[in-house]
Amino acid sequence: MITALISRKGGVGKTTTAVSLAAALAEMDHKVLLVDLDSQASASQSLGVRPEDLSPSSADLLLKSARAPEVLRPSGLPNLDLVTGSVDLLDADAQLGAFRGRHLRLRATLTAVSELYDHVLLDCPAGLSVVTGNAIAAADGFIAPTTPHFLSLSGIKNLIDTAERMAWDAGHRVRLLGILLTMVDYRTKLTRRSVDQLRQEYGRQVFAIEIRTNTRLAEAPEHGRTIFQFDPHATGAEAYRLLADEYLMRCSGDLQGHRG
Ligand SMILES: Nc1ncnc2c1ncn2[C@@H]1O[C@H](COP(=O)(O)OP(=O)(O)OP(=O)(O)O)[C@@H](O)[C@H]1O
Ligand SMILES: [Mg+2]
């Protein structure tokens, strides 16, 4: 199963979710590959890769026709491998503009290794760039994280439609695995209303589990550690374990919700 994490807006929790979900699945003994497609390489750094050690990276896959086995590396955590991001991705859109089949570069190379893993997670940059288009063209499904704010929610329909169209253009179908509410804080006045509105409109397309605001999740990356290493009892750790359960159910086609 190849899953992309996408959003129009930045800072909605894609990377936190990619890293934490990957780590939770790996803890559950699934073999996982996390591919960092962001020029900021936040996912890679969250797993403790130093900026000077980012090469080789996903930029080599997209821009230099490297093969996946040449760029993937162990993450240091059992069952979790990583393809790092790189600042070289910054002008990937301009460079890829010259290629025929520019949306299909990642798919070609990932297909070869995806059989070695139970789950491949693609952490995308914000927006629907050519890089994200590559992720969508390679993915079986996508997760759309969003904060419960009016302006984030208003872009969801367009995001889903555009992702489905990009996949169609690439000659395949991609499935919405779920809209994921992140950084949910019910002390903020409008949160309840936004959450209710989203759930009413999208029903089971929204993950039952909500990721609440938890400062431990924001602190862990600085230490290059996942939330499960940094503070395994934090509410954020428990939330991402529950997300992993629900994610697995949704991968197998069950949209009913989560345990408990
Ligand atoms: N549940 C949470 N509670 C508290 N802080 C969080 C939570 N989720 C994410 N954050 C913090 O919010 C910021 C944005 O999160 P993150 O980097 O995961 O978003 P993103 O969508 O990947 O952003 P970008 O679009 O820039 O790649 C980070 O500083 C992260 O540590
Ligand atoms: Mg990110």
Task: Provide structural commentary.
- The protein has a single domain, classed as Rossmann fold (3-Layer(aba) Sandwich).
- 42% of the residues lie in helices and 13% in strands.
- It is built from 13 helices and 7 strands.
- The chain starts with a strand and ends in a 9-residue tail after the last helix.
- The relative contact order is 0.18.
- The mean pLDDT is 94.
- It binds adenosine-5'-triphosphate and magnesium ion.
Q: For the largest beta sheet, what order do the strands appear in spatially?
A: 3-4-2-5-1-6-7
- Reading the helices and strands in chain order gives EHEHHHEEHHEHEHHEHHHH
CATH-derived architecture: 3-Layer(aba) Sandwich
The H-level CATH homologous superfamily, spelled out, is P-loop containing nucleotide triphosphate hydrolases
Strand content: 5-15%
Helix percentage range: 40-55%
Number of discrete helical segments: 13
As for the CATH topology, it is Rossmann fold
Q: Tell me, what's the shape?
A: globular
- Write down the Rg: 17 Å
The tally of strands reads 7
Bound molecules: adenosine-5'-triphosphate, magnesium ion
**Terminal-residue CA separation:** 25 Å
Assembly status: single chain
Quick overview:
By secondary structure, this protein is an alpha/beta fold. The chain has one domain (about 1-250): Rossmann fold (3-Layer(aba) Sandwich), CATH 3.40.50. The chain contains 13 helices and seven strands.
List keywords for this structure.
globular, binds adenosine-5'-triphosphate, Rossmann fold, binds magnesium ion, single chain, 13% strand
